[in-house]
Amino acid sequence: MKYLSLLVLIPILFYSCKKEITQEIHKNIVVEGNQVPDYSGVSTLQVENYINKLYIDLIGEEPTEQELDQKVALLKNNNLALESREIIIDELLASDKYYKQLFRQTSAVYLNGILKEEISNQIVSFAYIRTQLLINGDTLSAFIFDYEIGLLTELFKADQDLKDGVITRNDFYGRFCLNYFFDQINMGSENFVKATFENMLGRFPTESELSNGENMANGIGGQLLLHSGNSKPDLVQIVSNSQEFYNHWVDFNYSALLGRSSTSEELEAAFILLANDDFSGVLINILKSDEYAGF
Description:
mainly alpha
């Protein structure tokens, strides 16, 4: 059956650094006469190419010969049904390799591709300096290094924490802004604000946003995107839970996976899922589509 949707926009506003998403409630109307697509003309090579693309995009490597044969059989035995595609996508999205690939991809955007080994080495270096400071009685400076070690440790385990459900996807991206490497790449409060906006929202801040963001980053306090804060963590929390963050995340993934921007209908459907923190659901809708599969 084909469904037409009657959309009723219900604004849901979360205050004090909570996410903002406009949720669409759909009332489905059944339309008779819709037919299941005919995939009889799809070749085995096309199916193999689809599975290869899924593996490379989601875990950064091609399937083994055995994995490829199994997945081809699964799809062909189920006439390439969307449900059979979801089984493969769900399996990949639940794997450790997916979260490691997500970490690498995010690091490439936010941190110029810093590897976990470099993060680990920096933690060891800071820990040594902290120990020497304590030996010399400089507890204040030692506390600063202890704080930086904590941020780097959170960055290092961001992928595993996301997989385990310890943090949200918003928190995951936030950790890539709150660490020593991000500060070194974007030195000073002005560059910090600009880089946070560019990475999370896909744009630079306005003059007013930049001024308020700098004040917030410097601990003076200010208002940004209708929310108040007085620290870098406050700024990152506000930006990473804003409506614009979700807009940009959806468009970024449509562009990366389909080579185009999302349509208004696709954006509305994505917001329904994101209202329940279902980022994976948005990805599944893209990855199971005939457009992505090339069928």
